[in-house]
């Protein structure tokens, strides 16, 4: 057997052995994001849509949307769920970025299929465990879901791509959100040789570069 393949198989066995979780677990879901704060992973929202499982007898999609907040402790390997007041509406396919002790949730779709107004930002305080609701000003930015967001070295939230209401192309493709001022402020970023607009991609910050990987072209382009 290939030594690397044998080592890889051993690592899989070890991982499955030592990361088994037997306590409370939230329902399985898609369309949510996770943010690591210290040793805790914070999860919000998502839905259960799976075309292989959640389908009505007549063929229609059957999906349940969530607005719960769950935490996975990577040290104890245990889940917990938060009981909070002023909880926001169910949301999927949003972006989430951590700055300090605050998680910023941008865009996304509701359980009715509508796209949330991108000028209304959800913020979760991981110290006081409460939701904050913020508004924005600045350049006009099209509402979207299925986009990406990263935190730049300068402390700005940089969003890219996604799909607008009913799958339309978003405008602009690239923008920054300054959350150090009140109200938060959007700014359109115009660059040469921009890649085609993508959705369902991944984005990672490396130094001064945002690296975009994979994804789909907007079907309505």
Task: Summarize this structure as a short list of keywords or feature phrases.
1 helix; 221 residues; Neuraminidase; disordered N terminus; 4-stranded antiparallel sheet; 16 strands; 8-stranded mixed sheet; mainly beta; globular
Can you walk through the features of this model?
The protein is built from one helix and 16 strands. By secondary structure, it is mostly beta strands. It has a single domain (23-217), classed as Kelch-type beta propeller (Neuraminidase), CATH 2.120.10.80. Strands 5-6-7-8-12-11-10-9 form an eight-stranded mixed sheet, with no helix packed on it. Strands 1-2-3-4 form a four-stranded antiparallel sheet, with no helix packed on it. A two-stranded antiparallel sheet has the order 13-16. The longest helix is centred in the N-terminal third of the chain and has 16 residues, at 3-18. The model is unreliable at 2-18 (pLDDT under 50). Residues 1-23 form the signal peptide. Keywords: Kelch repeat, Repeat, Signal. It comes from Gigaspora rosea. InterPro entries: Kelch-typ_b-propeller.
Name of the top-level CATH class: Mainly Beta
Helix content: under 10%
Please tally the helical runs, counting DSSP H or I stretches of 4 or more residues. Answer: 1
**Helix- and strand-based class?**
mainly beta
Number of strands: 16
Q: What's the N-to-C terminus distance?
A: 48 Å
Order of helices and strands: HEEEEEEEEEEEEEEEE
Provide mean pLDDT, rounded. 86
Oligomer: single chain
Strand content: 25-35%
Q: Can you name the CATH architecture?
A: 6 Propeller
Query: CATH homologous superfamily name?
Result: Kelch-type beta propeller
Radius of gyration: 19 Å
- Regions with pLDDT < 50 over 5+ consecutive residues? 2-18
């Amino acid at each position: 057997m290939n030594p690397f393949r044998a080592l890889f198989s051993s690592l899989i066995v070890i991982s499955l052995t030592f990361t088994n979780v037997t306590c409370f677990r939230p329902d399985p879901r898609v369309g949510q994001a996770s943010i690591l704060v210290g040793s805790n992973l914070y999860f919000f929202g998502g839905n259960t849509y799976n075309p292989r499982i959640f389908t009505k007898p007549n063929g229609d999609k059957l999906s349940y949307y969530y607005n719960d907040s769950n935490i996975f402790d990577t040290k104890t390997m245990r889940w917990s769920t938060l009981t909070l007041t002023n909880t926001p509406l169910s949301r999927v396919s949003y972006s989430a970025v951590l700055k300090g002790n605050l998680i910023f949730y941008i865009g996304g779709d509701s359980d009715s299929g509508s796209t949330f107004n991108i000028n209304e930002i959800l913020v979760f305080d991981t110290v006081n465990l409460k939701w904050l609701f913020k508004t924005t000003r600045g350049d006009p930015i099209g509402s979207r879901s299925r986009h990406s967001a990263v935190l730049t070295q300068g402390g700005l939230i940089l969003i890219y791509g996604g799909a607008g209401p009913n799958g339309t192309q978003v405008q602009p493709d690239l923008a920054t959100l300054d959350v150090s001022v009140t109200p938060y402020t959007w700014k359109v970023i115009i660059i040469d040789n921009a890649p085609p607009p993508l959705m369902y991609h991944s984005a990672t910050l490396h130094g001064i570069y945002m690296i975009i990987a994979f994804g789909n072209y907007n079907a309505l382009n």
